[in-house]
Write a structure and sequence with these properties.
The protein is of the alpha/beta class and 321 residues long. 45% of the residues lie in helices and 20% in strands. It folds into two domains: 191 residues, D-Maltodextrin-Binding Protein, domain 2 (3-Layer(aba) Sandwich); 97 residues, D-Maltodextrin-Binding Protein, domain 2 (3-Layer(aba) Sandwich).
């Protein structure tokens, strides 16, 4: 073996006890969990749940910091540039960690190289919504209405997955419509309820809450099958509008250079929180499925989904900004 290789192995062996020691001492101060979407969104709701439970388990305050914008990219950039000691984390989504690569010509972060994946959290479909007081009952009704209305309809979306579903409705669902971007799905639904939009596409959590409240009607979901919480609402895959389900996922990430033992401890603590009874109740309320990926599996998902979401963006005909 070459002398330089021997020295390198010796250096790594010397660092291993230090990393383990840091993990034992971690956390040594409050932790910030950044989320790239505004209050009231599903990501914000889960982040605050995690922050509360992790504070108890880690014996240090964990606070949520909302930095909305660029489909989660502003928060992702901040965490990518943070000190890599595990005290700054990112609650991210398939928007920020996969789709943005195809939606933006020049990202200020690299979703693969700049992060250490910690744990997967959930998967969730999107819902196509209209006001409950309209005669529109089905996607066919919506398409017919768009043909009768000069200039077509307008719809709201608050993240990447909802935008892509909207574009696919226009291309493959026969709905003539123009999308209006909002900082989050709750904001688009507020405009829909107020009558300033014709329809909207939102995550299942935000949309289902308004359906149960009697203000909105769900006419389709983006999963590969109907959602139990919305009985009778058909899937866009079953209707042939989508070839594959468009389902958003979320996960927690740390800056790339955070020591492995700290990443492993954070992953274990997060999975324990989400696997508990309170985590199960939360996921049911969010109309979401658990997605308990390890850091290694989450890293593989990010790499695969960058290509998958690129195909969605191409099919939807969206030009990168």
């Amino acid at each position: 073996m070459k002398r330089i290789d021997v020295l390198r192995l010796a250096a790594l062996a010397a660092l291993a006890p230090l990393s383990a020691a840091r993990a034992q001492e971690f956390p040594s101060r409050p932790i910030v969990l950044m989320v790239g979407f505004p209050p009231g969104t599903a990501s914000d709701t889960v982040s605050r749940f995690l922050a509360d439970r992790l504070s108890r388990r880690l014996n240090q305050p964990v606070t949520v910091e909302n930095r909305p914008g660029v489909d989660g990219g502003i928060a992702a950039t901040a965490v990518a540039r943070a000190r890599p000691d595990g005290h700054t984390l990112l609650y991210s989504t398939s928007s920020a960690h996969a789709a943005n690569v195809s939606l933006y010509r020049s990202l200020t972060y690299d979703p693969v190289a700049d992060f250490a994946p910690v744990a997967g959290i959930l998967r969730q479909p999107t819902v196509v919504l209209v006001r409950a007081d309209t005669p529109v009952q089905t996607l066919a009704d919506l398409a017919e209405r768009s043909r009768r209305q000069a200039g077509g309809l307008n719809y709201g979306f608050g993240n990447t997955s909802t935008r892509i579903v909207g574009e696919m409705l226009a291309r493959r669902g026969g709905v003539s419509a123009t999308g209006v971007s909002f900082r989050g799905n709750p904001q688009s639904l507020t405009e829909l309820i107020a009558g300033r939009l014709d329809f909207a596409i939102a995550d299942a959590f935000t949309g289902t809450a308004q359906v149960r409240g009697g203000q909105l009607r769900a006419i389709a979901v983006s999963g590969d099958a109907p959602t139990p919480s919305l009985p009778g609402v058909p899937s866009l895959v079953q209707m042939g509008v989508l070839q594959d389900a468009i389902v958003a996922w979320t996960g927690v990430f740390a800056p790339a250079a955070v020591p492995g033992p700290i990443v492993a401890r954070l992953g274990a603590e997060i999975q324990a929180v989400m696997a508990g009874p309170d985590g199960a109740v939360l996921l049911a309320q969010l109309v979401a499925d658990p997605y308990p990926l390890s850091g290694t599996d989450l890293a593989a998902l990010v790499r695969a989904d960058i290509a998958r979401w690129a195909s969605y963006v191409r099919l939807a005909g969206i030009e990168p900004q």
